[in-house]
Amino acid sequence: MLVNVDVAFSACTVKAESTNDMHYQCARWLIRWLEFRLSLTNAHAAVVFDIDGTIIDENDVKNLHMYNVVKWCHSRQIGVFYVTARLDTGSNRAQTRHTLRNLDFTCDGLYMMPVETTVDSISICAFKRRSREHIARTHTLFATIGDMWWDVSILPTTELTHRLHSLPSTDCVIFFHPHLEGIASIKLPNT
What is the pTM of this model? Predict the structure, then answer.
């Protein structure tokens, strides 16, 4: 069930019996949204996913609902990009690619945080925003999905977004950030 959030833009929380059910509802909603967007234009469409807590859990177990969305995107020639706050060391990149390959998560691009980046919420958010902007140079972004606000939004919060960002991290939220120009944002529950 979707419940409206009292903000000045389109946003709702996803209410379900379990985290797995929230992921299922988000995956269903996302595919419907992508179908709608494709009906308008499919010119170099793309979707951005976070990795940890989004497509895989802390034990490197795949999120089957997000996996199905990734496969659906590939079947419709929608670009799939992973943007992660994992640091981009040679061994970390190799391990990340190995994990993704073993779980059958293929992609059109993998963006990892530069090693020299300060690891805090503002820096992570800025890196993820710059990565989305880089992808948007060659693709039309349809959606961004992650389990943290920095995966799907712009920090620091403003008066406009404060209410949204003050929701519990365990909430699942679908919204259209006013500064992300029609990109669907899905903030999965952070557990």
Answer: 0.91
